[in-house]
Amino acid sequence: MASPLALAAPDVTARAKVLMRAGVASQPQARALFEQAAGQGSGPAAYYLGLMLKNGMGGAQDSAAALRWLELAAQRQVAPAMFIVANMLQDSDEGMARFWLDAACDLNYPEALQQKSVALAEGRMGYAHNEEQSFLYLKMATHAMGHRTPEP
After folding, report:
1. Nearest CA to 70 among 56, 57, 94, 52?
2. Rg (CA), the chain
3. Would you give the end-to-end CA distance of the chain in angstroms?
4. pTM of the complete model beyond 0.85
5. Rounded to an integer, what distance in angstroms lies between the CA atom of residue 104 and that of residue 34?
6. Which of 116, 124, 119 is nearest to 141 (CA)?
7. Is 62 helix (H, G, I), strand (E, B) or coil?
8. How many CB atoms lie within 10 A of CB 97?
9. H or E stretch including 108?
10. Nearest in space to 46 (alpha carbons), one of 99, 85, 88
């Protein structure tokens, strides 16, 4: 059997997901494996590494590093990462927050569609108040929830 370090990024990511969910004792190893796979180009690994850093799983919490890894995952088309980045940036960079929320909406990520619906209804995040658009995004969110893609 190959050592975990010799595995391809998708295999390393799958192994790291198991370790992450196995409990606190195995989370540092999961974090290291996610970092390895993310370095090999895995968007899902960058996403999970960002989540672990954001939540202090497997080591110290590091919001700045979490944002960097989540942005990398978002750039690699991981919709949940786009959504989280949008929310992390909402108070500091509304334009980029809107960019990532729109990108997640383009991938039919249900939570993003729902959040954009609310933002349009309330005229928040730099979106103009628009009840008709809000209703459309709510319908899209409802549909997307019934056709959710599996987690990365």
Report:
1. 52
2. 17
3. 25
4. yes
5. 22
6. 116
7. coil
8. 20
9. none
10. 85
H or E stretch at 1: none
Count other C-beta atoms under 10 Å from residue 95's C-beta: 9
Cα gap 108→113, rounded to integer Å: 7
Q: Tell me the mean pLDDT in the region 53-79.
A: 98
The HSE-up count of residue 46 (CA atoms within 13 Å, CB side) is: 25
SS3 109: coil
Residue with tokens 């180009």, as numbered in its chain: 41
- The whole-angstrom separation of Cα 42 and Cα 55 is 20
**Residue 124 is encoded by which pair of tokens?**
């928040």
- Listed residue (38, 39, 43) closest to 76, CA to CA: 43
CB 27 within 8 A of CB 55: no
Tokens of 9: 């990024």
How many other C-beta atoms can be found within 10 angstroms of the C-beta atom of residue 68?
Answer: 15
pLDDT by residue (tens digit) across 25-61?
A: 999 999 999 999 999 999 999 999 999 999 999 999 9
